[in-house]
């Protein structure tokens, strides 16, 4: 039987070849070396609160599992843009840890709900219609579903509550201000979710925190429909720093 199992695995590998989503090494969805390097991208002690610089004033509490670099960045990109849904388990685990961290650091009302005394809505950032057609699905929704499934003992509800209300430009290459303008009032709560969102505690989930503009807009749309609390969680965060010159001691200002 072991020989048959080995032979079957080899045949499957020939028919459906697998390569590491991070480095391309054959035979594993994520190779051993990249798994070890991935640990170096995660923050010691678990997810931590992240604030981009400059930080938009209305950014909700956000926790990320690690830095957007190395294998973690490559896996996030491969999952979202290269149809590597076999990375959902790894990325979903890190996102789940970030969700837990954001809930624990949130206002008391949200913590009470998370403890099992009420529903907690897990709200993925919506994909545009064009992106859904191109990819065939909504990768963030699938990732959020994996997270919600892992919280089966709690009342964590996957809520595709947000949808785009207008087309936006590609965010790549835009600075923080341009992203904010591009996304302003670009999301709305779906009518069938309005009565669920009203008075609910929400955790917005995304893959990467960059300038914070996406999470600000998601939180605004949820609050506009009556959400009582909104926090956010991401797999990773870019190490953004303001380009403004720093003042030196004694400088006039």
What keywords describe this structure?
single chain; 253 residues; alpha/beta; Rossmann fold; globular; disordered N terminus
Give a verbal description of the structure.
The protein is α/β, with parallel strands linked by helices. The chain has one domain (47-237): 3-Layer(aba) Sandwich (Rossmann fold), CATH 3.40.50. Helices cover 42% and strands 16% of the residues. The chain has helices at residues 2-15, 32-41, 70-81, 88-104, 108-117, 129-135, 139-150, 176-183, 194-197, 213-224; strands at 48-49, 62-67, 120-124, 156-158, 162-164, 187-189, 201-209, 229-237. The strands form 2 sheets. A 6-stranded mixed sheet has the order 1-2-8-7-3-4, with helices on both faces. The protein has a two-stranded antiparallel sheet with strand order 5-6.
């Amino acid at each position: 039987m072991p020989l048959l199992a080995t032979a079957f695995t080899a045949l499957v590998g020939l028919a459906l070849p697998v390569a590491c989503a991070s480095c391309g090494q054959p035979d594993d969805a994520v190779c051993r070396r990249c798994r070890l390097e991935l640990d170096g991208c995660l923050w010691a002690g678990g997810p931590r609160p992240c604030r981009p610089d400059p930080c938009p004033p209305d950014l909700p509490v956000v926790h990320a599992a690690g830095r957007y670099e190395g294998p973690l960045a490559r896996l996030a990109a491969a999952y979202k843009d290269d149809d590597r849904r076999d990375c959902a388990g790894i990325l979903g685990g890190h996102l789940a840890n970030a969700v837990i961290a954001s809930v624990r650091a949130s206002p008391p009302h949200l913590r009470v709900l998370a403890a099992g005394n009420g529903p907690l809505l897990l709200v993925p950032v919506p994909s545009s219609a064009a992106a859904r057609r191109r990819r065939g699905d909504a990768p963030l929704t699938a990732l959020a579903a994996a997270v919600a499934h892992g919280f089966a003992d709690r009342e964590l509800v996957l809520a595709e509550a947000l949808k785009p209300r207008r087309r936006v430009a590609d965010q790549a290459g835009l600075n923080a201000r341009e992203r904010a303008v591009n996304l302003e009032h670009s999301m709305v709560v779906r009518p069938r979710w309005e009565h669920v969102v009203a008075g609910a505690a929400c955790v917005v989930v995304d893959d990467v925190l960059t300038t914070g503009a996406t999470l600000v807009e998601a939180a605004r749309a949820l609050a506009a429909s009556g959400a009582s609390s909104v926090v956010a969680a991401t797999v990773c965060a870019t190490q953004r720093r303001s380009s403004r010159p720093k003042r030196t001691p004694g400088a006039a200002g």
